[in-house]
């Protein structure tokens, strides 16, 4: 985890202070993904790659009877998240911890092995071993629960010049859209007995996906 943590800390040491202001213009679909979580009373939600805590705070406000957890490899981002959670008055319902998205022990971090909802929002495109992170997300879904994923899509319906410019810009931030996310999630979900469905937003700009585990 140390190499990944150091890289993310270097990248976000200063960006974290303006991250939410700048990202809201192009992280299409993340608020829709949050709205679809809809956890019930007493249920638990985990966000993998929680960053500044923005999504956790929004989700916790929408579901006041649920408990929320987040993990991120960057200590710098978690400092911002912890401060934001305290300012929002949600420290009693939202907990965050530093961990590698591909290999974490939720029981050691949060005192529970599974979660009714797991969310990964625009994080897989920044995690080199993203398939391992996706598999881990599925593995910590509780019976009857679901994994919700939103990230950059294949941009198949967008004009070629726009797609090329977008990919160059994202690459400057070490962001790589996972063009086979749909197929990978479907395969991983089926192997675990989950059902899965994906949606393309903005002519392929973003992908929203849900994998549900039987009760």
From TrEMBL:
Q: Name one GO molecular function term.
A: methyltransferase activity
Record domain Methyltransferase: where: 45-145
Listed A to Z, the keywords are: Methyltransferase, Transferase
Q: Which Pfam families match?
A: Methyltransf_25 (PF13649)
TM spans, by residue? none
Record InterPro entries:
Methyltransf_25, SAM-dependent_MTases_sf
Question: Could you provide one GO biological process annotation from this protein's UniProt record?
Answer: methylation
Record-given protein name: S-adenosylmethionine-diacylgycerolhomoserine-N-methyltransferase
Organism, per UniProt? Roseiarcus fermentans
